Amino acid sequence: MEHFFAPCPRGLENLLVEELEAAGAQETRGVPGGVAFTGDWASCYRANLHSRLATRILWRIAQAPYEREADIYRLAFSQPWEAYFAVTRTFRVQTTASHSPLKSIDFVTLRVKDALCDRFRARDGERPSVDTRAPEVRVQVFLTKKECTLYLDTSGAPLWQRGLRHANVEAPLKENLAAGILRLAGWRPGIPLVDPMCGSGTFLLEAACMALSRPPGLERPRFGFEALTAYQPEVWRSIRHKALGAVQETRFLRLWASDQDKKAVRATRHNLRAAGLEGAAEVTEQDFFDLTAPADTGILIANPPYGERMGELDRLAELYPAMSGVLKRQFPGWRAFFFTADSRFPKLLRLNPSRKIPLMNGPLECRLYEIALVAGSNRRETRN
After folding, report:
1. Domain assignment present for 228
2. What is the pLDDT of residue 382?
3. What's phi and psi for 106, nearest 5 deg?
């Protein structure tokens, strides 16, 4: 059994445990920012193909205490890199740290790169080439206060890069965070879903792929594990073939999205069309204040704007209270979820959230607010 670590957006660790266990992971252990687990290579391949929440799947190859850079060099030099990948492969080293006493993380990266090259040169008489832009092999170094861990990245490009979003708007939500928000909201295929601030359509794309059993890694041209010596192509082909066979035909999935920005609507429609998901959702150019519910019950989910400049903050302070009236009049019986870094949001919206779920959007501290909208007497028929 191999040891792996799957980083993810903070706040999604428990959901990622469930997802990895469904892929065959064992001895799962959630920690802030990810999940450690053991498994065979088949479980690693399935996790890379099917995980909607993980950022990467990292293969742990070494772990040891350190005090100075020389200790890290010795640890890296002692690893049998020549057994992990061929000298003809290009590579890159990246280092992240949490409370490390070392002054320069860049110097640690350089020392690990030197150790790897020195090991190859001592064994083979030649060294692999560095490629910082599109390496075939990615070495990840993680430092805590006293311990250094070396990983090989089995994913390659981050797993949130699904290859589905061709057109973007400003500050798009990463796909794995959007998938996690849908899971936290309790959305499941068949439940009506409305995104009234759709941007480039990330929530819509993730929901459609979930509903059609379309694995998030299906469109990726390659994974990092394909460059490793341990790669088992027959196992991978079998896993991918099984996943392909489970994908359903595109159909209308009771997904509705809108935005007042023409560019956002065009981007969402383009992304759905490019992904072969045209017809799975209804996308319209519409102001939030013109919304009407397409069904008696369902989930409304939105990533509203949150500005940093004073003028933007003042405009948002006027926008939020007006939004509450639309929600109460047009969406009785629904549950609304708003993902924002603006801590004033629930107070300005003037609706009490039933849940406040802390999540990290990169370096931003955010909250997912759930608001249960009390059903009124005016019931609406489902719109086909």
Report:
1. no
2. 42
3. -60, -35
